[in-house]
Amino acid sequence: MPKKIQPPAPEPVIDEEILRKAKLALEADRPRVAPGCVVCGGDAAPTSTENLCWVCRRLKISAWRDVDPQISIQE
């Protein structure tokens, strides 16, 4: 039984340069992944401007609330 002759590889339909530019444009449109929490290294909350996870952000807010009455008493 004779082997089937394979057709030659098809030529690319899209130019390589156009394809490369399209891939770069897609990468630029993707949302950036938030960096890790600066305190514990967990996933940073998307609403945090200080790169804190939601737990560390909540602890910071709670600590501020605890410190504010103490400052008033000392004065």
Number of strands: 0
Q: Indicate the mean pLDDT.
A: 80
| SSE pattern, N- to C-terminal | HH
The percent range for helix content is 40-55%
List the uncertain runs.
none
Percentage of residues in DSSP E strands: under 5%
How many helix segments?
2
Spatial shape: rod-shaped
What is the straight-line distance between the termini?
100 Å
Q: Taking Cα atoms only, what radius of gyration do you get, to the nearest Å? A: 28 Å
Sheet with the most strands, sense and barrel status: none
Q: What structural class do the secondary elements suggest? A: mainly alpha
Structure in words:
This protein is mainly alpha-helical and 75 residues long. It has a domain at 36-75. The chain has 2 helices and no strands. It has helices at 16-29, 54-74. The longest helix has 21 residues, at 54-74. The protein starts with 15 loop residues before the first helix and ends with a helix.
Give a short summary of the structure.
This protein has helices at 16-29, 54-74.
Indicate the topology.
Layout: H1 16-29, H2 54-74
Keywords:
mainly alpha; rod-shaped; 75 residues
